[in-house]
Design a protein that fits this description.
The chain is mainly beta and 210 residues long. 5% of the residues lie in helices and 55% in strands. It has one domain: Mitochondrial biogenesis AIM24 (Double-stranded beta-helix), CATH 3.60.160.10. The protein is built from 1 helix and 13 strands; from the N terminus they run ββββαβββββββββ. Strands 1, 2, 3, 4, 5, 6, 7, 8, 9, 10, 11, 12 and 13 form a 13-stranded antiparallel beta sheet that branches. The longest helix is centred in the N-terminal third of the chain and has 10 residues. The radius of gyration is 17 Å and the shape is elongated. 35% of the residues are buried.
Length: 210
């Protein structure tokens, strides 16, 4: 069972089951817990190779036991997402904890440019269970519909789910209007029917004003 204590600490109650968590994110526990590092996020050789080629890092540990374990990461906000057989696409750096029963992997998302830490692949989480996402400030959930597509700055993007098509566009970004543009600019466009999670603070990027 996942529950938030405040907005920056996640408590997970376990009765012999397990969760997968960002390595080093455990801040306290009671009861009896065992910790095991899962190289490459536990998704196998293909995922490890993909991450090595793209530079996307995901170091995961399995936590199993009886009791309560608390997780946090650099005082980031934590957002809970419930999956009911669907798939969540999320930046690896924004994934904190998932139910052990959820499957994690990688998926090709297109020629994105060069956001630091974000390669050509995005982490996928699918199945039935809960996932906890990190954000710099409280995340905002935006609806995408066939009538209203959505365009997002790549530095603010966290995750998306649903029947959503993702594409990358070069052109003017929000920073250009503030006179801060200086290089090639990219945006992420979402079309279809689903949800997009964004944070109110942009991660550091390279390649101009991406």
């Amino acid at each position: 069972m996942f529950r938030l204590q405040g907005s920056k600490v996640l408590a997970v109650e376990m009765t012999g089951d397990a969760v997968k968590a960002k390595n080093g994110s455990m801040v306290a526990y009671d009861g009896r817990m065992a910790f095991k590092k899962l190289t490459g996020g536990g998704e196998g050789l293909r995922g490890m190779v993909a991450r090595r080629l793209t530079g996307e890092q995901m170091t995961v540990m399995e936590v199993r036991g009886q009791g309560t374990c608390w997780f946090a990461d650099r005082a980031s906000e934590i957002n809970l997402v419930t999956l009911r057989g669907d798939r969540l696409h999320v930046e690896a750096s924004n994934l904190l904890v998932t139910d052990a029963g959820l499957r994690t992997g990688t998926t090709f998302t297109g020629l994105r440019g060069a956001a630091r830490g974000n390669g050509l692949f995005t982490t996928t989480v699918e199945g039935h269970g809960q996932a906890a996402l990190l954000s710099d400030g409280p995340a905002v959930v935006l609806r995408v519909s066939p009538r209203y597509p959505l365009t997002v700055d790549p530095g603010a993007y966290i995750a998306h789910q649903g029947e959503v098509r993702q594409s990358f566009q070069s052109g003017v970004t929000f920073r250009t209007f503030l006179g801060e543009g200086g290089g090639e600019a990219f945006q992420i466009r979402f079309e279809g029917d689903g949800l997009v999670y964004v944070q109110p603070s942009e991660r550091n990027t390279i390649a101009g004003d991406l």
